UniProtKB/TrEMBL annotation:
The keyword Membrane applies. It comes from Flavobacterium psychrotolerans. Keywords: Membrane, Signal, Transmembrane, Transmembrane helix. It comes from the Bacteria. The chain crosses the membrane at residues 438-461. This is BatD protein. Residues 1-17 form the signal peptide.
Amino acid sequence: MKKYIFLFILSFQGLLAQVQFEAKVSKTTLGLNERLRIDFTMNDDGDNFSPPSFEGFRIVGGPSQQVSQSWINGRSSFSKSYSYFLLPTQKGSLLIKQASIEINGQIYKTNPIKINVTAAVEQPRDPNEAPQISVDDAIHLVAEISKGNPYVNEPITVVYKLYFSYNIGITNWRELNKPKYNDFWSQNIDIKQLVAEEGKYNGEKYRFVVLRKTVLYPQKSGKLEIEPLSLDIDVQVPTNRRNIFGQVQVVDDNKRVSAGSKTITVKPLPEAGKPQDFSGAVGRFNFTAVPSKTNLKNGESLDLKVAVSGTGNLKLFTLPKPVLPNSLEMYDPVHNEQVQTPLSGMNGQISDSYTIIPQFKGKYPIKPLSFTYFDLGSGRYKTITSPEIMINVLDGPSASENTVATNSGVSKMKVSAGEQFKFIKLETNLLNSKTTDFLGSTMFYILMFLPFSIIPIIVLLKKKKEAIDGDIHGNRIKMNNKLAKKYLSEAKNQINNKEPFYIALEKAMHNFLKAKLHIETSEMSKDKVQEILLSRKAKTETVQSFINLTENCELARYAPSSSVAIQQDYDKAISIISELEKQI
């Protein structure tokens, strides 16, 4: 009996060993412009097939499934395969990872396969199917830059145009590498629909489409590099063959193009004539400081609006702050931006509105405000000064009625002349007091025992306060969340409006950095922010999350997003700012 059981186990293992599942490729070395076929084959039917992720490749065909079964001399054979056609997206040694499938309750996996991808190679073609034109000469990606040597904070534009010949057709295109604008403030211009236009490239007529428009403001001087935009384009090219109707037949081809990196030489703003109060404004502006009213009654308030309008880097500088007498109480300003960014650069208005409340009656001057900017037209610094504002408080207490100054500098109560001598009554009328004695009354005992009854309450409140004070971690979290919501208050007000929300969110993140790291917006490059935060003992994951969220603000303004995604970004910003505040 044991012998039969042993033979049965051996035969069962033999059946399991017969199951085969493997991956086969058409070639292990190919050019960047060649396609690769990979087949996952098995000799038994299976379920739950899971292909690899094909990192470094793009699927251009498949999966296609083939099943075959035959009987030869009483023996049956079964074969099943899944086929893919892949196009490499990069050069180098790439690895196709394992695929898996379930057969008879067991999981089987293929072996990983290494593929070596070289530079593009020339592919032999059938003479009859050879393209009439070269794809390399028919497609060109160009980055047109409006100015190659601007000043710091002077706007320049980058327009990416795809030129293509009249003889070919473009069926699809994908971005391989997006352009990066390190050390630039950038704003993408929304293109609602791609429109083919006619133009010239190297003196020859082409069609072209504008793929991307970007406005850039360089934030530092020197040679700054714009990393290129790269595309993978599917095209249809005519051949020498014709169909039965006499029409030219076309073949599908693929072309990868790049706009090439561009170097911008940025000039620093001149030091000659630069005022000390210059805050970085570059362009052409108007400046005003206007109060809502100048005559006030006791208890009233006024609004002082400090505004700059015109064209230039409106989002990249700060407005001057008014200086007020001590008798005028001023609250933190409400900042407002009404700025558009067309291809010519920012234009519109920014303003700070201050609420001012007078404390005493009298006349109080607000000193003139000065705003300085660099005029690109004349190449000089210009200063605009607002007129002095006189605030007249008509009634209320006077500052001189409360105190009188003496030579010793000690303030004494002032006695009015009318109250120096008052008539003293020499006669008085006495009234009989109540006969009931307070000692021994109900109120007497209530007031006597009341302090003793309050003692337990005081003890409980003291213990609760000590527990709250001892919860350092909890108090820190509360403080951090409060600080985060303070910076994000404007973003929360715009949470139902996608584009204003992300603009306010990005500004809140920048304001947080300015407050905590003491750096200006012009210095906020990705590398520098990361370096400073890490030097302040911030965690790498938190820093990366902060940078990713900041970069995502610009993309999210133009990408479709739901209210749920906006709320998630808002909650994520609160969490990140709280974590950074706790860590640094």
